[in-house]
Every structure is written in structure tokens, then in C-alpha cells.
Write a structure and sequence with these properties.
The chain is of the alpha/beta class. It has a 5-stranded mixed beta sheet.
Length: 107
Amino acid sequence: MFEKISSVEQFEKIIGHDKPVVVKFYADWCPDCKRMDVFMGEVMEGFNEIPSYSIDKDQFEEISNKNDVMGIPSLLVYQNNQKLGHLHSANAKTPEEVTTFLQPFFS
């Protein structure tokens, strides 16, 4: 479902797409990230064919800091190298919150 980002170059290429893409910032030790993973497959089914990626916040601290990712999990939407939206961890606890966040970008 979420393709893992493994380099800075890959991240930069992904956020440069001319259509919106979703990037989930996470960490392996994060219990809220694991809870989000339980329902993200179902949520993303409602947004067919949206490119979605994940990036380890700890492994890519510079990218996380540059994008103001203070809490995880965080979902960010990018297009043409611009951050269009940022769903902070405090507001990403339920499928409904995530769906409501994504709808304006992918309806």
C-alpha cells in the first residue's frame, strides 16, 4: 500500500509529481503509527490509484525537520514540490479523520 522511501533523491522525485501524492511519516517504535496502519489500507481503498509512500522520520531527520513533522504518524500531501496539506498525529487517530483530510486533495 505505502511504498517505502529509501533515499533523499527518491523523496525529492516523489514530491515533484504533477499530481498529488501522500507521504506518511512514521517510526518503527511508534505505537500510534502501528494503530494507523490497521485502518490505512481500508481508507486508501476509497482513494483508488493515489500514489502513497512512507518515510521513516528517524532515518530522514533532515527531511522531517524541513517539512515541520514534529509528531508521528503524520500524513503530508505534495504536488509539484509543494506541501499542500499536513495532517498532524493528534488529528490522525481515526479512519474518519484521515478520510476527511484526504478528500479535498483527491475528490
